[in-house]
Design goal:
Length: 450
């Protein structure tokens, strides 16, 4: 049987017992005090948790690793943690698919696939998330031709509000499959996902510092010439770091252990943690720190299997906002963002990240129906971020931007219904599958309406 942890009211008086079911997300900006936490070990236990919640008049939310910066998974009802539902359930080499339990961490999936000589086509740069959490919120990497992780889904299983287990694919319950690939947890509890995979391949990564004016002037050229292109702009400077990933014949030639430790651990995590802590304490020092930091990373080229190139460790905690813009407006919006920062009194210690994705056919995908560029802004955890994010959001929404579902934003259903042509299709399906909002919460009420 799965584990059930009962919650306890917290009066707030000194010395009162701490709620054993209290939950906090990775960034620490969202907390919840559920009535109980359930850790199911089988699909049957997920169904039972849903039925019991209905009987008790409680809402249900599944939560993965907590890497979302929004309250998408927060609840005062039943918090369902699927981590015990983990592992590969089956590989179909002829179909080029793998079926995996919903609570499997992406890092475990990547390693297991590599051991089988297989790989996802594309992925984001963090692999701590569960597969269900990552796909449900639209996690993506960067790609000219290959899209988000959710776009690689070929089937899924969903426990609905009435406790049924619904199998979904292009052939079976296709209207649910179409929407539930990025379902925000609003349609049910995902228990298994079938992904398209391909034989393991090599990527050669070329990382190179580049001036802001050059990379923005050549953005379309870099996009067209590379399978995966992204860059980071360091606020308060004219400096960027670019990364180009392209398939190669191999063999593997990873960074040497000393180089990898300097770049990925010392500069990107250890020193970066220290300078952000300094910047939080002394904001006036941030522009000078940024100039030094933006020059610290050097050019390098290496070759390895996909997940070792796409992903990197992220131990410096932050809060993030990311908007998806029509790709043709990305450079203009980024230049406006830079001009805004340059003339403001803001002090920004985190780089701004720019990535791309092709159009896809998922109703609530941030790339739904249009070629897309993503601009992500970050602030070190514990640093006031509202002024920066508000100013950035004003720029992004002027271009019809769509906020990442798992990252900080202030948009509501009225705005999002205009931004997503198929928004009404999703909400109508939600009305059919969950009319009583068993899987609802305050975040979904804001972004989907009620």
């Amino acid at each position: 049987m799965g584990t059930v942890t009962a919650g306890r009211k917290q009066p707030g008086a000194p010395g009162t017992p701490r709620n054993p079911a209290a939950w906090r997300n990775w960034a620490g900006n969202v907390t919840a005090a559920p009535a109980r936490v359930v850790t199911p070990t089988s699909v049957g236990e997920v169904q039972e948790a849903v039925r019991r919640a209905t009987e008790d008049g409680l809402r249900v939310k599944a939560v993965g690793s907590g890497h979302s910066f929004t309250a998408a998974a927060a609840t005062d009802g039943v918090l369902l943690r699927p981590q015990a539902l983990a592992g590969i359930l089956g590989i179909d080499r002829s179909a080029g698919t793998v079926t995996v339990a919903a609570g499997t961490a992406l890092k475990d999936l990547n390693r297991a696939l590599a051991a089988e000589g297989l790989s996802l086509t594309n992925m984001g740069d963090i692999m701590e998330q569960t597969v269900s959490g990552a796909t449900s919120t639209g996690t993506h990497g960067t790609g000219r031709d290959s899209a988000s992780i959710a776009a690689q889904i070929r089937g899924l299983e969903l426990v609905t509000a009435d406790g049924r287990l619904l199998a979904c694919s292009e052939k079976e319950n296709p209207e649910v499959f179409s929407a539930a690939r990025i379902g925000l947890g609003a349609l049910g509890i995902v228990t298994a996902i079938t992904f398209a995979v391909e034989p393991l391949f090599f990527l050669t990564a070329r990382e190179e510092p580049m001036r802001f004016d050059r990379v923005t002037a050549e953005f379309e050229e870099h996009f067209a010439e590379n399978e995966h292109f992204e860059f980071y702009w360091f606020p308060h400077t004219g400096n960027c770091n670019t990364k180009r990933n392209n398939r190669s014949q191999g063999p593997a030639a990873p960074p040497g252990p000393v180089s990898a430790w300097i770049e990925d651990e010392l500069l990107s995590n250890g020193v970066f943690q220290a300078v952000n802590s300094l910047g939080r304490a002394v904001p006036a020092a941030i522009p000078g720190i940024a100039r030094i930091a933006s020059r610290a990373l050097s050019a390098r080229t290496y070759t390895d299997i996909p997940y070792k190139v796409y992903t990197s460790p992220r131990r410096v905690r932050f809060v993030e906002m990311e908007y998806a813009l029509p790709r043709e407006h990305a450079v203009e919006a980024l230049r406006e963002l830079k001009a805004m920062v340059d003339r403001s009194r803001l002090r920004i210690s985190f780089p701004v990240e720019v990535r791309t994705a092709p159009a896809d056919d998922i109703a609530l995908s941030t790339a739904s129906g249009r070629d897309t560029a993503y601009i992500a802004v970050h602030m070190y955890r514990g640093t006031p971020y509202q002024a920066y994010f508000t100013a950035a959001e004003r720029i992004f929404t002027a271009y019809g931007g769509r906020p990442h579902w798992g990252k900080v934003h202030t948009r509501d259903a009225q705005y999002l219904a205009e931004a997503y042509p198929r928004f009404g299709e999703f909400t109508a399906l939600r009305d059919r599958l969950d009319p009583d909002r068993l899987f609802g919460n305050d975040y979904l009420r804001r972004v989907l309406g009620d």
